[in-house]
Amino acid sequence: MRTVNKLKPGESGIVLGIVSPEALKRRIIDMGITPGAVITVKKMAPFGDPIEICIRGYHLSIGKKEASKITVEKTENFLGEKVV
Amino acid sequence: MMQVQNKFKKKSNTLKFALVGNPNSGKTTLFNQLTGSTQYVGNWPGVTVEKKEGKAKFLGQVITILDLPGIYSLSPYSPEEVITRNSLLNDPPDVIINVVDSTNIERNLYLTTQISEFGIPIVLALNMIDIFRKRGDVVLLEELEQKFGVFVIPISASKSEGLKELISRAIYVSKQKNNTAFKNFYEADIGQTIEKIEKIISQAKNEKFGSARWSAVKIFEDDPLALKSVKLNEAQASKIASLKNSIKTSRNVDRQIMVADQRYKYICNACSKAIKRKCALETETFSDKIDKILTHRILALPIFLLFIFVIFNATFGQFGNFFKEKVEWFVNNPFALLFSDILDKTGASVWTKSLVLDGIIKGVGVAACFLPQIIILFSLLSLLEDSGYMSRCAFIMDKLLRKMGLSGRSFVPMLMGFGCTVPAVMSTRTIECEKTKLATIFVIPFMSCSAKMIIYSLMVPVFFNDNQPLIIFSLYLIGIAVAVLSAIILKNTVSKDTSSSFIMELPPYRMPTFKSLFIHVWERVKDFLKRAGTVLAGCSVVVWFLRSFDFNLQMVQDSQSSILAGVATFIAPIFTPCGFGNWRASVALMAGLAAKESVVSTMAVLYGAGDSVKLSEAICAAFSKASAFSFMTFVLLYTPCIAAVSAIRREFHNPKWTALAVCYQLLIAWVVSIMVFLIGNLFF
After folding, report:
1. Which residue from A47, A66, B1, B133 has the fewest beta carbons nearer than 10 Å?
2. Do B610 and B472 share a structural domain?
């Protein structure tokens, strides 16, 4: 199982779950990061942290530490289809 | 499905609508359009940090409109969420106007699924429909209305489209009685469990938490706040516990995630039927293309520095100076002459003439000369904000700021600090981590605000002929360096082990509108005019009086023998090691505690110099290169104006810390300016 911070720019993954303390978990799921959603890592900030991801059609910047709480299954051929 | 209980009693006859929606979904733009007010709108999440109320008139009916801070959910964990949720609970509106950004509909509808369970009737305003349609996308309104059980009205708040329909629909909904039904967003087993819990809860005591449905969902999620607010007896509690346990969870997916997941699945399903997209969601947009360059791994930093350089050069270079000279001419020639004429004709006494000309006009006039530069700086900063670049700055700088115990979210407030400390301090409310917020507030005053700029603009040309922008830039750098050092000191002492998270939306770039720019600049100009009329004029009069009369209240020829000189001579020695131990400088600094502009206006009154040319000559005689630089450093670092200190106190919620911050600012200003003076003496 991978976490989002391990994805390279350009790679995508399907969210499996979130393992994190209460408040942070709430924040993460409220932003639309829920099981089945597709996350694409867009780029890294100049200093390597945070990263920019695309989720549900919008852009989100998220710290690497926070990204490490999100487990994903890497997808090979990402064509914008949602796996629900 | 259960009926919405109308548990919220109505208090008065005026209708009240609340605007609720995600950050950056255009609530404030809509609020401005509906109420005709001019609240500031920006393109970064978290512009509105407190609720605002306005009145709208519709067909002769007065309606109260409430603008609430943008939220992603009703959780409530962030300060915005707390404000919005408490407002809905304690002072429920007749109708919630749920503002949904149609260009980012899925995530926006997530909040809709929550507030539709809250128990207050809602109308859905599908905002930015113009951009949505421009992309070639189509929405089937009936489908959406049916799926979410609410009226959906497409609007464009910025273009003022669909607003009448929206309000008349909201009025219609407010007159309906208890006929909206809760939509079930959940799959069979979860939905049934929630309904069962809801039945139990509707018999229990519920202390201001929202409808029974909402409480049921929250209790199902094990939300600590819900468990506290809903008073259950033992039988009810154990019944609910067994109901909850009937739903299987895993390590990765608990009930909270499950509920969110169900909501999103419902939304995805609804959107796939109601929205026909021309291109896939992931298609590269214009905004993405801009971002490829602006947040490029290598180019991002140089581009950021370039922007700062351009802003700087426009403000302090030839462009800004040109306008400054024009205003200067106007204040000194037609304006002062006019007053002098009027006073002569009305036969005013010598001292009235002196009061008006030497006191008020000189004091306020000199500060007014620098207004064009303030306007330029503010316009450029607000362009950065409105375009959406500010949140990119947070993205770029987060790691660096984290090393100092701050976070990327601190960056926008810090950058705004170059404009004015007051809104900058207020905007720290978007920082979730309390310690990070306090540290950010602590360092903001070291970001040289635009009123301090006036002093540099006055003094630098006198002493440093070449490299003027460079010298001013070095002052800003000293401010930033002190801010960085202070943050690091704080990190290693008071706010150890902070672990603030960084999750921030990057909104699409938008073309800044002239209206928004105007509102922003006008706010600042209005603020300046207000200060000019009150603090600056008042200070100038007081200073004029104290320097024109001696202790026997006789008008003096030479201010050296005035009351002010007598008093200030006691204080001045404190500043001798800094290089400006003359009494006039001390008075100017004291006046600066009220407003930074009055440092300059006080000097103008004290040196009896009406325009900045004469003032320059006087300053040239009173300071050396090193002491001038040291004086400017002191101004840069010492306690900000009264308005800023009170804003800091409000956000600190603690007078002791505020006092500590003020003492720290005074001490650091004193120490650094001594250092600057000593080093300056070696070079100049």
Report:
1. B1
2. yes
- Phi, psi (rounded to 5 degrees) for B97: -95, 110
DSSP state of B161: B
Q: B302-319 burial, b if ≥16 CB within 10 A, otherwise e?
A: ebbeebbeebbebbbeee
Query: B298 vs A80: CB contact, 8 Å cut-off?
Result: no
Q: Which of B356, B328, B362 is nearest to B344 (CA)?
A: B356
Question: ipTM for the complex?
Answer: 0.89
Nearest CA in chain B to A9: B297
In A13-32, the residues whose Cβ lies within 8 Å of chain B are 16-19, 22-32
Q: Chain B within 8 Å of A83 (Cβ-Cβ)? A: no
Using one digit for the tens of pLDDT, what is the confidence trace for A57-71? 899 999 999 999 999
Q: Minimum mean pLDDT among A13-17, B459-463, B609-613: which range?
A: B609-613
Contact yes or no for A80 and B250 at CB 8 A: no
The CATH number covering residue B73 comes to 3.40.50.300
**At the fourth CATH level, which superfamily is domain A2-75?**
Ferrous iron transport protein A (FeoA) (2.30.30.90)
How far apart CA B366 and CA B598 sit, in angstroms, is: 9
Which range of residues forms the domain containing residue B269? 188-276
A56:B106 CB<8 A: yes
Q: Which of B448, B429, B435, B446 is nearest to B406 (CA)?
A: B435
Domain residue ranges of chain A, discontinuous segments joined by +: 2-75
With b meaning 16 or more CB within 10 Å and e meaning fewer, what string describes A11-28? bbbbbbbbbbeeebbbbb
Q: Does the pLDDT at position B9 exceed 70?
A: no
Res. B80 pLDDT band, cuts 50 70 90: confident
A6–chain B Cβ distance below 8 A for any pair: no
Distance CA A50, CA B663 (A): 35
Q: Are B519 and B527 in contact (CB under 8 A)?
A: no
Taking residues A16-22, what's their average pLDDT? 87
Would the CB atoms of B395 and A50 count as touching at under 8 Å? yes
Q: How many other β-carbons are positioned within 10 Å of the β-carbon of residue A9?
A: 13
Write down the pLDDT at residue B610: 61
Q: Does B400 touch chain A (CB under 8 A)?
A: yes
Cβ-nearest to A19 among B72, B251, B268: B251
Judged by CB atoms closer than 8 Å, whether chains meet at B398 and A49 is answered as yes
Q: Which of residues 359-388 of B touch A (CB under 8 A)?
A: none
Alpha-carbon gap: B606 to the closest alpha carbon of chain A (Å): 50
Quick check: A73 contacting B, CB < 8 Å? no
The pLDDT value recorded for residue B5 is 41
**What CA–CA distances, in Å, run from B523 to A71, B375, B413, B527?**
46, 10, 17, 6
Query: B330 and B228, same structural domain?
Result: no
Chain B 403-442, CB below 8 Å of chain A: which residues? 408
Would you call A10 an interface residue with chain B, using a CB distance cutoff of 8 Å? no
Least confident of B493-502, B605-614, B656-665: B493-502
pLDDT for B220-272, tens place per residue? 988 888 888 888 888 888 888 888 888 877 766 788 889 999 999 999 999 99
List of chain B residues whose C-beta atoms are within 8 Å of the C-beta of residue A18 = 252, 257
